[in-house]
Amino acid sequence: MRIVITGGAGFLGSHLCDALVQAGHSVICMDNLLTGRMENISHLLGHEEFIFLRYNVCDYLHVDGPLDAIMHFASPASPQDYLEFPIATLKVGALGTHKVLGLARAKGARFLLASTSEVYGDPLVNPQPEAYWGNVNPISPRGVYDEAKRFAEAMTMAYHRYHGLDTRIVRIFNTFGPRMRAKDGRVVSNFIVQALQGKPLSVFGEGQQTRSFCYVDDLVRGIVGLLMVDSDKTIEERTDKKFLYTRANDQIVASVHDPVNIGNPRELTVIEIAKLIVKLTGSSSDISYHPLPTDDPKVRRPDISRAHALLKWEPQVPLEDALSRTIAYFRKTLSQ
Amino acid sequence: MRIVITGGAGFLGSHLCDALVQAGHSVICMDNLLTGRMENISHLLGHEEFIFLRYNVCDYLHVDGPLDAIMHFASPASPQDYLEFPIATLKVGALGTHKVLGLARAKGARFLLASTSEVYGDPLVNPQPEAYWGNVNPISPRGVYDEAKRFAEAMTMAYHRYHGLDTRIVRIFNTFGPRMRAKDGRVVSNFIVQALQGKPLSVFGEGQQTRSFCYVDDLVRGIVGLLMVDSDKTIEERTDKKFLYTRANDQIVASVHDPVNIGNPRELTVIEIAKLIVKLTGSSSDISYHPLPTDDPKVRRPDISRAHALLKWEPQVPLEDALSRTIAYFRKTLSQ
Fold first, then answer.
1. All residues at 6 or more sequence positions from B148 whose CB lies less than 8 Å from its CB, including other chains
2. Which terminus has fewer CB within 10 Å in chain A: N or C?
3. Helix (H, G, I), strand (E, B) or coil at A211
C-alpha cells in the first residue's frame, strides 16, 4: 500500500513510519517539524519506499500518484506544546483535517484520524467506553487540543456519512516509549529524565490522579490493525438513512468506522508511576509536589472491549519491560 | 461604528442589521445565501449606511477601510439545515471563524461570536450556567453544529488570550420571531405554520422535553448590549499568566470576554408551546406524535445571571405578545 502519514516525524508518527516500511508498504511522511524532529526519521531517509515532505497540512497539500491510505497524526500533542501553540493546534485539527480529508477523498484513499482520550476531558465515568460523550471545558486553555480533536472527529464522521469516505478514528490514550522528547512535559518522560539526572520527580497535585500508560509498540500494532482491517457496515447501514431519527436507545453494534480506544487499561496513580521509575532507574530522586494544572483529568483509563472485538487487540508488553526500554533510550539520549 | 455582520441575511443577522442601522451605525452585511435570504434585508438595500456583500466567509475575505467590530453569525442554525449541510456547518464554524478572527485582528476590530446553547448538548444540569461544560456527542449527526460552535469558542478564546483580541461570545438559546423560515424545522415556526394551515402540530417524542423561547427583539437587545459594553479585565489578568496553573476551584469573576447566555429562562414543555399556539392562532389543529430525533436535548434553559450582572439584561416581551407578533408575520407570509 502507498500511505501518507502526516505528523510522520513526531513520536507516534515516526514509529508508524517504521512499522509500515518494515511491513513492505510505501510511506510518504509529512511534517512541518513544529514539534516533530528529523532525528526520529533520519534512519529512514534514503530508503526507497520512504519519502519525507516538509509540509504544513493546514496550507497547500499535494501528493503525486495514487494513495491507498492517509493517517492524520499531525498535531502538537503534549499539554506543554498545545499551550504554547494554541492556534496552530486548533488549525491543524480543523483546517488540517479538512485538507487531509479532501486529499483522501480525491485519491479514494482510506483515512485514519489520530484522535485522543482527551475527547473524554475530565471523565465522569471510568473506564471510558467509546460511547461516553466526555466532559470537556471548551474555553479552557487546555480546551484547544480537546476541542480540535472533537471537531476533527465530527468532520471525519461527516465525510464518512456524507461522502462515503472509508474512515477510521483511533482514540489514543497515554503512550510512552523511545523518541518522546525529554522536555515535552509528559509524565513518563519527565519522570525518567528527572530520575536519570538525580532531580526530584515533579508530581502535580497529590499524585492520586490515575493514568494508563501504553507502550508505543503495542499502540502502533493496534493502530496498524485498525487501518488494515476490512470495512464493515457503515454507520449509514446501521441507522436510518436520515440519521435524524435514530433512536438514542437502539442497540448499535460497533463498526470499524466508529472511534476505537487504543490504550493500556492497567491504571496506576501518578505516584505509583513515579516510584516504579525511581526503582527501575536505580535513582535516589525524591518527589516534589506542584499545583495541579487547570482541568487536569483525575482519571483516565480506556475500555478496550471494542478494540478487542474488532481487532482482537490488547496490549502485550509488560509495563516494567516497556519502562526499561524507554529508560535505556533516555539514558543514551541524555549521554549524547 | 463600522460593523461587519457575517450571516447578515439570516434570521438573527438581519434583525441585527436593522437594529444597528437604526442606531446610526454603518453596517456591512455578508452572506453566501446558503440559508440566508435577500428578502430579510431587501428593505435595507440602498440605505447609505448599509452594504451587502455576497461572500462565503470560509473563502477569501476582504473589507476595505477601517472596522470597529465584526459579528460572526454565519452558520446553518436549524437542525434541518445543518443535517443537510454538515460539512458547510463544520467549515463555517472552523475555517470561517478562523478567517473572520484574522480579519478582526488585522483591523483591530472587536469580535463577537454567535455561539449557541447547543454547546451544552443534552445538559445534565438545568438551568445551564456558562460554567457548565456540556454533554455533547462529538460523532452524532447533530454533533456537527455543536462541535463546530464549541471549536469556534475555543478558537475565539485562543485569539483573545494569545493575540489580545477584544472578543465576546454570546450563547444564544432558542429564539423566535418574524423572518424565521416557514420550513426550517424549528419548533415555533413549525407549530405556527401547521396551526395556520389547520394541520396537526408535529411533536417529537412525548413533547415533555422543555425549551425556553426568547423573542428576537429581546435577544437582539442583549447581543447589541454585549457588543457595546466596555472591555473589562481580560482572562489573562484574572488568572495566572501561564493559564496552565489556574486552580479549578479559584473563584473567577465573569468578564465580558467570557461566554454569556442570552435567552429566556421561562421554560415550557413542547406540548405547552403547542397548545398555546393552537389557542393564539384560533386553530382547530390536533397534535401528532413522531419518534424523537437522535440526541435531542431533553431540557434547555438559560441561567441568565451573568447577562444580568454584566449587561443588566433580561427579556421584556411577554411570551404571548411575542407569539402573536410572530403569528401575524406568518399569517402575512403564508397568504402571499
1. A151, A154, B75, B89, B90, B92, B93, B94
2. C
3. strand
Q: Specify the 3-state DSSP secondary structure of B323.
A: helix
Question: Taking Cα atoms as reference points, which of A223, A230, A295, A228 lies closest to residue A259?
Answer: A223
Under 8 Å CB-to-CB from B243, ≥6 apart: which residues?
A83, A141, A294, B161
Cell of A174: 497515554
- The residue type of A240 is D
Q: Which helix (H) or strand (E) holds B143?
A: helix B143-163
**Sign of dihedral through CA atoms A253, A257, A258, A261?**
positive
Copy the grid coordinates of residue B228: 457595546
Instruction: Using alpha carbons, list the distances in angstroms from residue B155 to A73, A109, B37, B165.
Output: 20, 30, 28, 11
pLDDT at B210: 87
Query: ∠ CA(A300), CA(B250), CA(A211), 5° rounding?
Result: 10
Q: Is residue A130 classed as helix, strand or coil in its secondary structure?
A: coil
Choose among B238, B252, B92: nearest CA to B161: B238
Cα distances (angstroms) measured from residue A254 to each of A233, A261, B289: 9, 12, 30
Cα of B155 to nearest chain A Cα, Å: 7
User: How far from each other are the two terminal CA atoms of chain B, in whole angstroms?
Assistant: 37
Separation between Cα atoms, residue A314 and residue A302, nearest integer Å: 11
pLDDT band at A240 (very low <50, low <70, confident <90, very high): very low
Which of A136, A167, A129 minimizes the C-alpha distance to A150? A136
- In the residue annotation, A120 being an active-site residue is answered as no
Helix, strand, coil percentages, rounded to 5, for chain B: 40, 15, 45
Q: Give me the catalytic one of B55, B82, B120, B145.
A: B145
pLDDT, one tens digit per residue, over B73-122 is: 999 998 888 889 999 999 999 999 999 999 999 999 999 999 999 999 98
CB burial of residue B142 (10 Å; 0-12, 13-18, 19+): buried
CA-to-CA distance for A326 and A280, rounded, in angstroms? 11
Residues 6+ apart with CB under 8 A from A109: A4, A67, A68, A69, A70, A103
Per-residue pLDDT of B21-54, as tens digits, reads: 999 999 999 999 999 999 999 999 999 999 999 9
Q: Which residues of chain B fall below pLDDT 50?
A: 240-251
Residue B138 and residue A134 in contact, taking contact as beta carbons nearer than 8 Å? yes
Choose the catalytic residue: A82, A145, A159, A215: A145
DSSP type of residue B173? P
Instruction: Spell out which residues of chain B touch residue A150, defining contact as CB-CB under 8 Å.
Output: 136, 138, 147, 150-151
| A2-177+214-265+302-316: CATH architecture | 3-Layer(aba) Sandwich (3.40)
Q: Does B129 contact A at CB distance below 8 Å?
A: no
- The tens digit of pLDDT for each residue in A278-331 reads 999 999 999 999 988 766 777 889 999 999 999 999 999 999 999 999 999 999
Q: How would you write B254-275 as a 3-class SS string?
A: CCCCCEEEECCCCEEEHHHHHH
Give the DSSP H/E element, type plus range, for residue A275: helix A270-281
Q: Mapping DSSP to helix (H, G, I), strand (E, B) and coil, where does residue B4 land?
A: strand
Cα of B336 to nearest chain A Cα, Å: 31
CA distance A218 to A222: 6
Spatial CA neighbour of B323 closest among B277, B286, B261: B277
Inspect the interface and report whether the beta carbons of B143 and A154 lie closer than 8 Å.
yes
Domain boundaries, chain A: 2-177+214-265+302-316
- Return the SS3 of A7: coil
Question: Which one, of B123, B182, B181, lies nearest residue B301 by Cα?
Answer: B123
